[in-house]
Write a structure and sequence with these properties.
The strands form three sheets. Strands 1-6-7-8-9 form a five-stranded mixed β-sheet, with helices on both faces. The protein has a two-stranded antiparallel ribbon with strand order 2-3. The protein has a two-stranded antiparallel sheet with strand order 4-5. It is globular and about 55 Å long. Helix 3 crosses helix 4. The protein is an alpha/beta fold. About 40% of the residues lie in helices and about 20% in strands.
């Protein structure tokens, strides 16, 4: 989340790590004259993205303008939040930049994604789940089920051996559709920029629900020819991400000057 109050402005970065809300390096400007610098470290159990956003907006104050910036899964979560919970969005929230996200979950079935990338991602995810919830998982799955979970290398296998036994539909396609924001995109009531790249190796551009003619006039889609996944590195400075940073600041800055 990027907080842009009036005056000379400031940025507040909110990171969600292991269900913990970490508000670091909060810089606020009082009355546009006196600068107050505070380093605040807050630990809060986060039950939902809505709770987190509402908490941040409450801290920011009634007159603040708060902007969501989501990357990859964070972008997908943010798009789902705005499309499915549009009636509950705090009034301080005035825009979203969804970087390398998706309105459709079809990309998860892409053959190359399953064969090349998911075998790297999924074992790390299952290891963390087992480390944190070993006792609960043994009760639910049994030792045999836990062993099968350890061998999962794709999201499809993870669905089969875990998610479908906890909360998700047995049918994988139905499970994927339940996570899509696309069917609800017309509910979004604030400006959204969905940014992606044609050469994204994870979220295939033809399988993420982009619209050439947006059905919601508040949504804009920008598909660049190159950029990879949440990257767009500067060719001269490979570890510099100027393009993404400038895009976020320009879009949020423009939205901050407009009324909701």
């Amino acid at each position: 989340a990027v907080l842009l109050p009036r005056g000379r402005g400031c940025a507040t970065r909110v990171q969600l790590v292991r269900k913990v809300l970490d508000l670091a390096d909060m810089r606020s400007l009082l009355h546009g004259v006196v600068r107050v610098w505070a380093r605040v470290r807050v630990r809060v159990r986060v039950r939902s993205l809505h709770h987190t956003i509402s908490t941040v907006c409450g801290w920011a104050g009634d007159n603040a303008k708060v902007h969501l910036v989501g990357f990859s899964m964070g972008a997908i979560m943010s798009l789902n939040y705005l499309s499915r919970m549009s009636d509950s969005v705090p009034p301080q929230l005035c825009s979203l930049v969804a970087v390398s996200g998706a309105m459709s979950q079809e990309f998860m079935t892409n053959e190359r994604y399953e064969r090349v990338y998911q075998p790297v991602i999924v074992p790390k995810l299952t290891k963390e789940l087992i480390t944190r919830y070993h006792g609960e998982l043994v009760q639910i799955l049994g030792e045999g089920g836990l062993s099968r979970l350890c061998r999962c290398t794709t999201y499809s296998e993870l669905h089969q051996h875990l998610f479908s036994m906890l909360y998700a539909p047995k049918d994988r396609q139905e499970w994927l559709q339940q996570m899509e924001a696309g069917p609800f995109r017309d509910n979004i009531r604030l400006p959204v920029l969905v940014l992606s790249a044609m050469d994204d190796p994870l979220h295939h551009p033809d399988m993420i629900g982009f619209e050439r003619e947006p059905s919601n006039h508040l949504m804009a889609y920008w598909m660049t020819e190159s950029g990879g996944h949440v990257a767009w590195p500067d060719p001269q400075q490979p570890h510099s991400y100027t393009f993404v940073n400038q895009t976020v600041l320009k879009f949020c800055g423009s939205c901050a000057t407009e009324s909701r």
